Amino acid sequence: MTKTEIRKIYRQKRESLSAEEIGTLSLLIFENFSRFFQLEKGQNIHCFLTATGKNEVQTQLFIEYFQKCQCHIFVPKVVDGKMDSIELLPETRLVPNQWGIPEPESNMANEAVRFDYVIVPLLYADHLGNRVGYGKGFYDRFFAEINPEVKKIGLNFFPPNEKIDDVWENDIPLDYLVTPTDVLSFTGKPSKFTK
Q1: Phi and psi dihedrals of 76, rounded to 5?
Q2: Helices 60-68 + 19-36 axis angle, to 10
Q3: What average pLDDT does the segment 146-159 reach?
Q4: Using CA atoms, how far apart are residues 180 and 50, in angstroms rounded to an integer?
Q5: Rounded to an integer, what distance in angstroms lies between the CA atom of residue 51 and that of residue 17?
Q6: pTM over 0.85
Q7: Are the C-beta atoms of residues 155 and 29 closer than 8 Å to each other?
Q8: Alpha carbon separation from 104 to 45, 107, 181 (Å, rounded)
């Protein structure tokens, strides 16, 4: 299937989920993440913030967990067509952007940060870690600019069932996919199945 076809199918699947289902599935994804990944104080984590009205995985539990672990948290902000990473501090004021995604009001990008983890939004990821996002390419460009050893982790309500036929050279795959039932590794390391 093409990315366009997959994007349409998985948008519809997400739209069919109730608020209660999204909450329950998001909690299961968070529990799988927190069991599999051992965070350490001072690590740098870039994490997307849940967009309003897109039925995305809820990341507030992740943010609270990262704070509890005393990690440095960074969140995306699109400036002049490019995605920057801004540190999320207790005093950071968030405002919705044109797509309904909360972003820091500040434009103070942290370009020299070496990230330990990047938590990625997506509509779908296949069995090789190739992802289908919203089609703007922000994360592929972001991945190309940051430290290559970062662990790229996608969160999704759905397991990989479809093959993506139109993967391009500049598409950067995930290292892991966390679903409500599994943590899948695409790094050659064994996956951990939690159920």
Answers
A1: -75, 150
A2: 30
A3: 95
A4: 17
A5: 15
A6: yes
A7: yes
A8: 16, 7, 32
